[in-house]
Amino acid sequence: MSGPDKPKVIGEEWSDERVKSFLFITPYDSKLNPDYQVLLKAYQAMRASDFERFLGFFTEAGRDLNATNELGQTILDHISEHRRSVDYIAALQTFGAKRAAEAQG
Q1: Eight-state DSSP code of residue 66
Q2: Cα distance between the two ends of the chain
C-alpha cells in the first residue's frame, strides 16, 4: 500500500509464497463462491505474469477455474469486459477456463 509516507512500489517481484497466499483468501460473504473470489482478488492484485503463475497453483490445488459469481459469470466472462485484459484472458484459456455459456454446454 502506498501513501504519503510510503513510496509506491512498481515492478516488484512476487515470490511463489506470495502468489500462493491468494489461495487462502476467504470471501467476506458466505454466499459468494470462494474459488471465484480468489480468482477475482488475484486478477485485481497481480500482473499478468504473476496471475499466470497463480493459475498453475490454483489448478494444482484442484480449484474450479469456471466457478461463477452471483451473476452467473465465470472469471473469464468478467475479465473479458476489460480493455487491457488480453494477457489475463490468454493465461486463463491456457489453463482451460471457459465462459459461463461454454461451461454449461
Answers
A1: T
A2: 42
